[in-house]
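Re-running Major facilitator superfamily (MFS) profile domain-containing protein to confirm reproducibility after the cluster update. Everything else is unchanged from the original entry.
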Amino acid sequence: MASNEPAQVPQSDQNTQPNATAEPVSEQPVTTDVAYSVFKTWQKKTIVLAVSVAAVFSPMSTTIYLPALNQIASDLHVTSSQINLTVTTFLILQGIAPMMIAGFSDSTGRRPAYNFCFIVYIAANIGLALQRNYAALLVLRCMQSAGSSGTVALCNGVVADMVTSAERGIYIGYTSATSIIGPIIGPILGGIIAQYLGWWWIFWILTIWSGATFVLLLLFLPETCRKVVGDGSIPPPKLNQSLTGIIRERNRARAGIAVDAAQQEAVRKNYRLRFPNPLSTLVIATDKEGAALLYATTTAIPSQFGKIYGFDELQLGLVYIPFGSGSLISAFTTGKMIDWNYRKHAKRNGFPLTKNRYQDLTNFPIERARLEIALPLLYFSVLGMIGYGWVLDFRTNLAGPLIFLFIFGYGSMAAFQVLQILMIDIYPGDAAAATAANNLFRCLLGAGSTAVVVPMIDRMGVGWTYTFASLTWMASSPCLWALMWYGPRWRKAKKLKKDEKEKANAEKAGMEAEKSSEAAEPETINEDTMDGKQLEETGKAAAKAPTETRDQVKE
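Result of re-run:
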């Protein structure tokens, strides 16, 4: 895996020369000659693959549990509604927990946050494998969610640390692909384990798998947070180093290889060891640019397919394959569409397409470049959800609901992927917090829909339930249209306000420093302006001072 080794990076601060006929100078794109990251392409891909594997536990922990819901309800002597509550609370914590860890990782680093998440997650899985009552199941599922859910936000934070907006689509595609594997293999694996070993072995398998992943991260994953290591060339503090990184630093010190002290000091001043704070995420979540998607209400699959088609746990697990397959295909195709649309708008607006270089997006219509892809996909997935509800309602051949599950899986995950990238584009310095804010809305809506979907189906029927959910989802699309039209204006106003605040703070700091220096200067005596009495008093005071000093020394 990659390392945080110092690299020689050109330090030119000159911007690229713009086309004089393109747009006014103040509106020109700003592209620096300084490399955005010292990590090579193969290193970036390796790191992204590693954190994507770590992020798979959050979605997989949700779906691996679903085929065993009926079996768990029977063993613990509770109703289906009560057992569905464990899914609801899982989703609530899945939305809230990343708020705590995201701001912590954006200021303190990714590695300490990963260590915290995996320790909590592994402990929760051990507890779930050993418990045998409903209350313990409910509490430990919340703990399991708290440990696993932060890894998704951390994964996107790592991508933002190393990858520019021009290349971000394809890399987020990689992270989405591996995180989508969780929902695909989760129900299949959960169904097999529940059928042949018992549902508690689901959690032993997760313990072993996550433990092995944690060991690999401890050994090899480098710190990437830009507030800790800059572009990756600054060695991180001991708390943020991998075990192999510590050995590498010792060898480097013995060889006499030094890091630029000024550059290291400039980066380290941003380093803060803080307790997790959700406030930064809440600020992002309540901003105009925040948007949420309705979480896929797959919790109803076990009850509906079990009742309509008489499926057992293994067969229920296989039902999730079409949804997961559509999601997986979207991960490999959507990233390319996103980057293609970015290049189209960059060419139209005179933005240079430079890899691994920082670009100021203040005057770039990034909202339009992303949402032109997201909105059609959102409407496509709405059609899939409506069709899925009505073919289930009419109890058609099994192929009907499976086809619509595929359509819904492709459209919903592709739209979510685009919005995820847009959140990172808008908040590049707080990528993990931005992802957590987006995740908060999704999971809270998902928790609500999970809690009410079965009672709604019982009262309204499957067709009308999913039609209502689809129309509710579609009603949120005007927010995205507003973001596409007014987003650039909001960003410019926010940047102007931030620049004015920084300027005012700098002026205030300068005035305070000037006052401090004036107060530190000794008072000079101008004898020419003093009368005889003042000179006499000054002489007496000067003569008295040494005497007082001698008396103090004697004492």
